[in-house]
Every structure is written in C-alpha cells, then in structure tokens.
Design goal:
This protein is mainly alpha-helical and 454 residues long. It is built from 14 helices and 10 strands. The longest helix has 39 residues.
C-alpha cells in the first residue's frame, strides 16, 4: 500500500474540468453499447463453428443451413462492433488524454495485440462468408478457426488492461509518467486479470446463448417449431445453461479477490460504513447516513462470502477518506441486480438441463419459453451491471490508487455536444442493426423438412 501511496503522490495535478460527469457518461454509454457485441465476438464464432462441425460429422444439411444463417448474423454484429470499438478507441485519447499520456507505454502492447486481432478477424470473416461455395468443406471450417481465436485474443488483451487498471503493477511513476515498464507483468501479472478473464468469458457465452435462444423462443410462442427452430434454440441454450451455474462459483472467486485487493469496493457492495467482524449482507435497501435502510439483513454473510469465515473482520468505508469512496448506492444496486439476475439465469439453466437429462427432450411448458424470452434481455442487463460494479466501484480512481479520474479527463470544452452526437450515432446504429437482423430472419429456409429430432 505504501508503494501505491508513493505513486499517487507523484501523479499529475488535477485538471479543472467542468464536464467530468458528462465525459464519464459518454464512456459508460459506449461501453454499454459495445460490451454485448464483445460477448458475441467471444462466443458466437465458436457456436457457428460447432454447428458447421456437426454438419461435417453427420452430413445433415440442416446444420449447414443453420451455420450459413448464423454467419450472416455474425458478420452484421461484427460490423456494428467495428463502429463501437472505433469510437471507444478515439474516446480513450480524446476524453482521457492524461491517462493515455502517462500510461500508454504500459497498456499500449495490449491495444496493439487487440488491433492485430481485429484485422485478423476481419480478414477471415470475409474469407469465411465468401468461402461457403468456393472452398472445400474442411478448408471452409478451418478458415473459421482464426475468427474464434481472434475474438479470444482481442478481448483477452482489453480485459488484461482493465485488470491492470484495477491492480496496477509492472511500472514505476516518475514525473507523472510511467517508467521502467514491464508490459507483460503489467497486463498478465496483475491479480485481477485471471478472475476477470474467466468471469467475462463465461458472461460472453451466457449472454450470447440466452439472447439467441430468446429469439427462437419468440418463434416457439408464435407457432414456429420445426426441427430447424428446435436445433437453433437447443444449441445456444445448452451452452448458456452449462455456463450459468459455473458463473456463480466464479463470482465467489471474484468477490474474494475484491475483498483482498479493493476492500473499499467490497464495502460499497454492501454499504458497510464501519469496519466490523461478522459483517452482514443486506438484501435490497438504500444506503443513507452510514447505514442500509429498508434492507433485509442476513447476519455474518458478508464475512462468510468474502473470507469463508463468518467471524472475519471486513473493512468498511471508514477506512478511506470520503473523497476516496465510490457512489455507494450506484455500486450496491448494480451489484445486487447482477447477482439477482445471475441467480435466476442459473436456475433457469438448471431447469432446462434437468428436463433434457431426465426426459431427453426440450421443455414443453409455454411458461418456460416466456421466461426464456425475458432471460435474453436480462442477461444483457446483468452484464452491464457487472461492468458498472467493476468500474464505478473503482472510483474515484482511473488507475487504482495511482491516478484519479479527475486527473485523467480532458480540459477541452464541447463535451455536451459530443455526448448528444454520440447518442444519436448509437441510436442510428441500433436501428440499422435491428433492420438487418429482421431482414435476415425473414429469409426463407432451404433446410430439408424431415430429419431426426434434436
């Protein structure tokens, strides 16, 4: 902790910026739009390749039809991700120039690898799309493997940068700039990297699986339930159902790392004003004047979850000055929303797997498919709440206990104009993607009508 304090004491002075909140909101809006697309970049190529592998293994044309249709969706979402990712790249330099100037040598390697991954993904998506009728089946399948690899490596390096921001290491600060930089140690040696990586990759498959399954659940409720729809729903839903319970265990790992490295963030999760042993968890409620009002207390649960000891001492918000505390209610609500939705998704996934295992078929109850339709959007809400928990819980630091967000923000004006323009761009992009996906959904199927049921 003394090393972090020394680093913080040599950080550059704060810029008097009246638009700090708007700059943070712009960045948050871009992340909220981009992160669901990242999930599809992580998981969807693997799902498409799995379906094409089923075609190669069985020769069943239905799998080839499904893989070709999903390829078009993958390309449309990749194009949208290019737009949002490019905006995020510009925002890093335009909104937070002191951050990039001070620490660009630390995280530059990560963004360079992400850039190479993006170009590799773009090249092979083009080959994959136009190779359906031009390459042999095995060569075409092989051309899709780099897409999945690039989706992994590109997001991996960005997650490593975020892990470093939460647990900075691998450099020294001199004159307001990072020196003696060890990029590999900084990106992959920080304690936050591994649990963030696993947590995000499971989230990628959960969000992708539930969203794709929700689209076909709508068709099921409207009477479209041929073998094609059953197959297209069963594959992503099975993946999401398997990942959801595992995510609960990874969340426990994540929480214990937060308790060790960022105890103030953990205190904000609960609204724990004073350090105490046997700290409780309050379900729901509102933090006000140093206590949680209207919440349902569960005695000693926070100590048990954080340290696997019901009598363990948990650091409260009183361990840091008021100006170093995150906005407690924002973090609490985001955290509890994420945990609540994640628990419901895990239960839904468990119910689906139980029916598949015991009865060897898909569930028949319309209520299951109604719940599945809701689960798709809720998974996105949980995803965004998870990132709010991570990023807002770190505040007021952009690099934890090294650089404040107020020190990193631009001193330029015109932020409100840029904010409004950004919102309009994202609205237009959302409408364009929705229009494309609806057109793709209306393309007639060429799959054979008879085959063995999934």
């Amino acid at each position: 902790m003394s090393q972090l304090a020394l680093l913080a004491s040599t950080a550059p002075a704060a810029i008097n910026q009246g638009y700090l909140l708007q700059a943070r909101q712009m960045q948050a809006l871009s992340f909220a739009v981009h992160i669901p697309l990242v999930c599809f970049g992580i998981a969807f190529p693997a799902l498409v390749l799995f379906v094409e592998w089923l075609y190669l293994r069985t020769g069943d044309e239905l799998y080839r039809t499904l893989a070709k249709r999903w390829t078009k969706v993958m390309a449309a979402l990749f194009a949208a991700g290019v737009v949002t990712g490019t905006i995020l790249s510009f925002e890093m330099g335009l909104l937070w120039p002191s951050f990039t100037a001070s620490f660009g040598s630390v995280f530059g390697l990560g963004f360079a690898i992400e850039g190479f991954s993006f170009f590799m993904e773009a090249i092979f998506i083009g080959i994959y799309i136009y190779g359906w009728s031009r390459l042999s089946p095995r060569a075409h399948f092989a051309s899709g493997i780099p897409i999945a690899i690039a989706g992994f490596t590109g997001s991996l390096t960005v997650i490593s940068v975020n892990g470093w921001m939460n647990h900075p290491t691998g450099f020294h600060l001199q004159g307001g700039k990072a020196v003696d930089v060890h990029p590999l140690q900084a990106l992959f040696g920080n304690s936050y990297f591994w649990h963030e990586l696993v947590h995000m990759y499971l989230a990628g498959y959960i969000v992708t699986g539930f969203l794709v399954a929700a689209a076909y659940a709508v068709g099921r409720l409207r009477g479209r339930w041929d073998r094609y729809e059953r197959t297209a729903l069963a594959i992503p839903l099975t993946v999401a159902a398997l990942c959801s319970p595992v995510q609960v265990l990874v969340g426990d790992w994540n929480g214990r790392e937060v308790a060790r490295a960022q105890p103030t963030k953990l205190a904000a999760f609960e609204g724990l004003a004073q350090t105490r042993r046997g700290a409780p968890v309050h379900l729901l409620g509102w933090y006000k004047d140093g206590r949680v009002e209207y919440g349902i207390p569960v005695p000693r649960l926070l100590s048990l979850l954080a340290y696997h000891d019901p009598n363990a001492s948990v650091a409260g918000l009183d361990t840091v000055p008021p100006d170093e505390r995150p906005p407690v209610n924002v973090v609490r609500i985001a955290f509890q929303t994420m945990v609540g939705i994640g628990t419901l998704l895990a239960l839904l996934g468990f119910a689906y797997l139980a029916v598949r295992w015991r009865r060897k078929r898909l569930p028949e109850s319309p209520w299951f498919y109604r719940a599945l339709v809701v689960a798709g959007p809720l998974s996105v809400v949980a995803l965004i709440c998870g990132w709010v928990t991570t990023e807002v819980g770190r505040q007021p630091w952009v690099v934890y206990r090294v650089m404040r967000t107020s020190d990193a923000v631009t001193g330029a004006g015109g932020i409100p104009v840029g904010y409004a323009t950004l919102a309009l761009v994202y609205l237009g992009l959302a409408l364009a993607v929705a229009w494309i996906l609806r057109r793709l959904a209306r393309v007639p199927l060429n799959a054979p009508p008879t085959a063995k049921e999934v």
